[in-house]
From TrEMBL:
PANTHER family: DIGUANYLATE CYCLASE DGCE-RELATED, DIGUANYLATE CYCLASE DGCP
Segment forming the signal sequence: none
Domain (PAS) ranges: 262-314
All residue ranges annotated as the Response regulatory domain in the record: 11-126
Positions in coiled-coil regions: none
GGDEF domain mapped to chain residues: 424-557
Sequence positions bearing 4-aspartylphosphate: D59
Name of the protein in question: EAL domain-containing protein
Organism encoding this protein: Chromobacterium phragmitis
Length: 828
């Protein structure tokens, strides 16, 4: 304690009017603190006002203001009255000591001083003063703590009336501490709160110290979540009482509620999602399974908790069934997200395997420390099965289940690589069913599909397991034969396939006959790569069709040339007639009586890649087969009308004949196309002559009659080309609205030498005259033919005797049209 005082440097004031006395006393207390002195009462009071001492050593007898007066002044000062005053005097009378103590003095020292006793007494009073100061400071600190404590602290008597409260401003229940003193707890807390706490109040008054949580309703209506502690504390008289401590835990409760809500939200989410979720601790033992995980693993959550993840979720390799490492273990060891292997399967508790996939991830706390792991996965068994099925569908024909074009290309490339490596022969067969469209159109696609399935089965039955039968769409099949062997074997296989295809087909009691055309290409005999194999086999198949169908043909140089021509023609047709090298030539029709040109037949020509002019017989069949004859025919019609309009404007009113194919006639918009061309070019309809063959008349009589009637309504003329060579009945001449008969050149060519042909020509002329039809003789090459035809009554002739087919500018010269006028006419 003495050391504490020295550290705090106690202040000692000596008041005495005798210097020797001051010296004695100062020497006695020198080492007890800071020593100051005053020689009068007034001087002492001045020093005290400036710096309060911790103890005052006061002489009684002093001039002016004695010690009693000074002590009285000290005790009257609120700031100084607690300072201990020790009287020092030479008087020993008891009445002086009693008077000094009655004025507030704490001790009495007699002169001359007994220094050890004086030091001990002074030191004791300094210690007491220091303790008093510390207690005062502690009391103030406690008051400050209570004042600013974020809690409600109150003392209540046994009658439940308030005796103390730290809520100075009434923050908690709207009642300030001063107002609350003496108030009953019911009034302070309110009825609702009192009802909730009443039993606890009874409990504390019985000497217990209950602690509980309570939701208080503040006076303004808001809720206060409080943690309440009641401590039994009787008053100084031993009467019952208690302390009430309420801590505001609203924020904590709200956080707990929010945490609960969040956990509940997560729980509902995990239990509701379509994926399985399993959580583990840091040892890989199960801590959570959601319902989907329960269903997929076969384990209930209460059974699985605490079990190693490998037991609840054993993983297997899908194909081989080998055990697999659970991703949870890698997550726990490396603290990173890990995906499942693509071929992973979960073995359920009942042994069933489920294809699964997804990923596992670590669970980290706020400090980044690993607390466990979670794995999320779902059943992909159906998805993987569907993927396998989709892959199969992507590479196989949906109707026949044969490999499609994509898969065949892949197998062909592999077979070629094998053939190159092993020095083998490879065969490719393209099979096209003959006239299959007729069956589809007449019997329906359902019958056609059944037939295609039977053809596929027959082809599969004739090839080896290493061969590939593919359907490319429609009625076309391709057979790939690796390691072919001799060329003779290729022919034998083609013959077998033809024979199988040709055998009758029985469907629903009906019998159907089919045949096929097969083209064969061989590596390395005629092809060096996949593209050539397909192209050459297709060319060979096309040749088989041209030669009568129901046969097979190998590829050759001749077929190659024909194939190139066909490709070039098709390319030119698709480019557009104007840009594709197509030209319109005209052959004059002459009145033999005066050798005047009365009309022209428009004839299509093609300038190929070699700048050669190709006749229609070389490309019209292909154009009709592909349907490209329609844009070509429209091109000829428009060009002929444009040229006819130009010649008419130059004084030559000529009838222009344009050939029409069966494909054009059967088109739904042919009449509209003719009407549009006539309107666009301004060519008179009565000068347009449309030539059709007898075969067109026989295809669909009713439709043809309607089309011809529509054409006649436009004002155009209808001519029958190559009359006498077809298979139509002569009655058609009466049925159809015809205007012109053209005698086929085959009859005209031999009419002078063959009396039969002469008779046919005569009969045709006579019939036409009888039916009031105009006549045109084709193929007139000699003067004798012309003379004989004139005698018979046919005077309009066409042939090399009068002029070969020529371009429009040469026709201008034939008509004696000045080139300048021709150019001007074109400009118009």
């Amino acid at each position: 304690m003495f050391n504490d005082l020295r550290r705090e440097q106690a202040r000692i004031l000596i008041v005495d009017d005798v210097a020797s006395n001051i010296h004695v006393i100062r020497e006695a207390v020198r080492d007890l603190g800071e020593v100051r002195f005053a020689t009068s009462g007034k001087a002492a009071l001045d020093i005290m006002q400036k710096s309060s001492p911790d103890v005052i050593l006061l002489d009684i007898e002093m001039p002016g203001m004695d010690g009693y007066a000074v002590c009285k002044a000290i005790k009257e000062s609120p700031r100084l009255r607690d300072i201990p005053v020790i009287f020092v005097t030479s008087h020993d009378q008891r009445e002086h000591e009693l008077q000094a103590l009655s004025l507030g003095g704490v001790d009495f020292l007699h002169k001359p001083l007994n220094v050890p006793v004086a030091r001990a007494r002074i030191q004791t009073h300094l210690a007491l003063q220091m303790k008093t100061r510390q207690l005062a400071l502690a009391k103030k600190d406690l008051a400050d703590v209570l004042q600013h404590l974020p809690a409600f602290v109150a003392h209540w008597g046994g009658n439940l009336c308030n005796q103390f409260c730290n809520d100075a401003v009434g923050h908690w229940f709207g009642i300030a501490a001063a107002t609350m003193r003496g108030m009953h707890v019911r009034k302070v807390l309110g009825e609702a709160n009192y009802a909730a706490i009443e039993e606890h109040l009874k409990d504390v008054l019985r000497g217990n110290c209950p602690s509980f949580d309570l939701t208080f309703v503040r006076r303004e209506g808001s809720l206060l979540y409080g943690q309440v502690s009641l401590v039994f504390r009787p008053d100084e008289n031993g009467r019952p009482g208690f302390l009430m401590l309420i801590t505001d835990v609203t924020e904590r409760r709200c956080a707990e509620q929010a945490l609960y809500d969040e956990k509940e939200r997560i729980r509902i989410t995990l239990n509701s999602i379509g994926d399985a979720v399993i959580a583990t601790d840091t040892n890989g033992n199960i801590t959570f399974l959601n319902p989907i995980a329960e269903d997929m693993t076969g384990w209930l959550s209460r059974e699985a908790v605490g079990e190693p993840v490998e037991r609840v979720m054993p993983l297997r390799e899908s194909n081989q069934g080998h055990g697999m490492f659970n991703p949870i273990r890698l997550v726990l060891s490396e603290k990173r997200t890990v995906g499942m292997a693509m071929n992973c399967a979960l073995q359920r508790r009942d042994g069933q395997l489920l294809e699964v996939e997804d990923s596992a991830a670590p669970i980290l706390d706020y400090a980044g420390n690993l607390t466990g792991a979670i794995i999320v996965f779902h059943d992909v068994s159906e998805a993987r099965a569907m993927a396998v099925k989709m892959t199969h569908l992507a590479h196989h024909d949906a109707l026949t289940n044969l490999p499609n074009r994509m898969l065949l290309q892949d197998r062909t490339q592999q077979a070629l690589q094998q053939a190159v490596h092993n020095g083998e022969r490879l065969g490719l067969y393209i099979i096209d069913l003959d006239h299959f469209k007729v069956i589809n159109d007449s019997m329906g696609h359902s019958v056609g599909d059944l037939l295609l399935k039977q053809v596929a089965r027959r082809l599969m039955g004739v090839v080896r397991p290493c061969d590939t039968v593919s359907r490319q769409g429609g009625d076309e099949f391709i057979v790939l034969v690796p390691d072919m062997g001799a060329i003779e074997q290729a022919g034998v296989l083609a013959g077998k396939m033809l024979k199988l295809i040709s055998e009758p087909y029985k469907l629903d009691g009906n019998v159907y006959d089919l045949s096929g055309s097969i083209g064969v290409s061989l590596y390395p005999d005629d092809s060096v790569n996949q593209e050539e194999l397909y192209r050459h086999a297709d060319a060979a198949m096309y040749r088989a069709k041209q030669e009568g169908r129901n046969r097979y043909r190998f590829f050759s140089a001749e077929i190659e040339e024909a194939l190139l021509t066909r490709q070039a023609l098709e390319r030119h047709i698709r480019m557009g007639a104007e840009q594709g090298g197509f030209l319109v030539y005209y052959q004059p029709k002459v009145d033999a009586r005066d050798s005047s040109v009365v009309g022209l037949e428009a004839l299509l020509r093609w300038r190929n890649d070699k700048e050669e002019i190709v006749s229609p017989s070389s490309f019209i069949p292909l154009a009709e087969e592909t349907g490209l004859i329609v844009p070509l025919g429209l091109f000829v019609l428009r060009q002929a009308c444009q040229d006819g309009k130009r010649w008419g404007g130059l004084g030559h009113r000529l009838r222009i004949a344009v050939n029409v194919s069966a494909v054009q006639m059967m088109g739904s918009d042919f009449c509209d196309s003719v009407r549009t061309v006539l309107k666009e070019t301004g060519f008179p309809a009565e000068l347009l002559e449309l030539e059709i063959t007898e075969g067109v008349l026989a295809q669909d009589v009713e439709r043809t009659m309607n089309v011809l009637a529509d054409l006649k309504s436009l004002g155009v003329s209808i001519a029958i080309d190559d009359f006498g060579t077809g298979y139509s009945s002569l009655s058609y001449l009466k049925l159809f609205p015809l205007d012109v008969l053209k005698i086929d050149q085959s009859f005209v060519h031999d009419m002078l030498a063959d009396r039969h042909n002469a008779a046919i020509v005569a009969a045709i002329v006579s019939m036409a005259q009888g039916m009031d039809l105009r006549l045109v003789a084709e193929g007139v090459e000699e003067e004798g033919q012309a003379s004989e035809l004139l005698k018979l009554g046919c005077h309009i002739m066409q042939g090399y005797h009068y002029g070969k087919p020529a371009p429009a500018d040469e026709i201008d010269a034939l008509l004696n049209i000045d080139p300048r006028l021709a150019i001007a006419g074109e400009a118009q």
